[in-house]
Amino acid sequence: MALPKPAVNSTNFIGDTLECALVPAQTEQGEIMTEQEIQEKGYANPDALVSTQWVADHLDDTENVRIVESDEDVLLYDIGHIPNSVKVDWVEDLNDPLMRDYLDPERFADLMSEFGVTPDTTVIFYGDKNNWWATYALWVFGLFGHDNVKIMDGGRVKWEAEGREMTQEVPSFPRADYPVPQRDDSKIRAFREDVERHLEARGRMVDVRSPGEYKGELLHMPDYPQEGALRGGHIPGAANVPWARAVREDGTFKSADELKEIYEGEVGLGQGDDVIAYCRIGERSSHTWFVLKYLLGYEAVRNYDGSWTEWGNLVRAPIER
After folding, report:
1. Strand residues in the chain grouped as ranges (E)
2. Which of 315, 309, 304 is nearest to 280 (CA)?
3. How far apart are CA 107 and CA 144, in angstroms?
């Protein structure tokens, strides 16, 4: 069942503040970003992004493209989603049900097969809150070597703002036979021991949490339950660049020059740096990981998903405020 085109934008996080703005049901054509405009933003890997128009043009290309919605609010998909998109629940689908880790290769292959995805399928991710959880899902897919992945620039909020079609119909695709992959965490994931070695080597780290969390005044984002760690502060030497500074008010990513001004001009990162990003549980930092790796082309970027819930609970772990 197709849903009415929305005239109100869904809630969106810009920085660490919640905004809800009225928008027209249809935008002017010139406000709808095209692939050429993405190319002109100067990214190292512009093909890592697609526009809402590209997605609209490929809704029925289900043999080659699978659209995946992943949200913090896991009920949003049921309320309405992009036609022919499937839902990846970041808790139920991506995490091990018992220990703190991600799903194993067998479960990943089964999930892909269930979605009708093969290793050659192009997977397009989108979601709420500036694609925060979409980049997290993309990062997890990377652990299993499924690199034919892209982000819909602007995410769910931009699709809705443009008045595009939403549906409650859950699609069904012929089951695929996705081979069980080899999982390799080493290239894009950092563990506690990696962070400790990084500290000794004075490697570059980016704390993508809010300034209040970075300073030790908060244990979580403002307006969230203040829980998860016994101590507040940040890992010594880490620079604070809140994750959502990388996006514009419409949810699309800033240009490469704007991103370089933030990450290189302000905090001094460089292309040759070995960088570790972290937040509270690794989801916000996956967004910064995507920006550095795909949009700016950094070769050595890892996401420390243990993040502050691990570091802030460690006995005698060094902390700065």
Report:
1. 2-3, 12-14, 17-19, 49-50, 65-69, 85-87, 122-126, 149-152, 166-167, 189-190, 204-207, 239-240, 274-278, 300-304
2. 309
3. 11
Identify the three-state secondary structure at position 265.
helix
Give 10-residue mean pLDDT values along the chain (321 residues).
Answer: 45 36 36 86 98 98 98 95 96 92 97 98 97 97 97 97 98 98 97 98 97 89 72 96 96 98 98 96 96 98 97 96 95
Could you please state the CATH topology (level 3) that the domain comprising 8-167 is classified under: Oxidized Rhodanese; domain 1 (3.40.250)
Q: What's the Rg (C-alpha) of the chain?
A: 19
Question: What gap in Å lies between CA 204 and CA 240, rounded to an integer?
Answer: 11
Q: Enter the tokens of residue 129.
A: 């809150």
Is 135 strand, coil or helix? helix
Residue ranges per structural domain of the chain: 8-167, 189-311
Q: How far is CA 312 from CA 232, 243, 280, 308, in A?
A: 6, 19, 9, 5
Map residue 187 onto helix, strand or coil: coil
Topology (CATH level 3) of domain 189-311: Oxidized Rhodanese; domain 1 (3.40.250)
pTM value is 0.89
Active-site residues, by number, are: 279
Q: Compute CA distances 248 → 45, 229, 253, 255, whole Å.
A: 19, 31, 6, 9
Q: What are the tokens at 28?
A: 């002017």
Binning the chain into helix, strand and coil, the percentages to the nearest 5 are 30, 15, 55
Token code pair at residue 249 = 């008010």
Assigned token pair, 220 = 């979580």
What are the CA-CA distances from residue 136 to residues 72, 125, 132, 196 (Å)?
10, 10, 7, 23
Rounded distance, CA 79 to CA 70, Å?
13
User: What distance in Å separates the CA atoms of residue 143 and residue 105, rounded to the nearest whole number?
Assistant: 9
> What is the β-pairing status of strands 2-3 and 166-167?
antiparallel
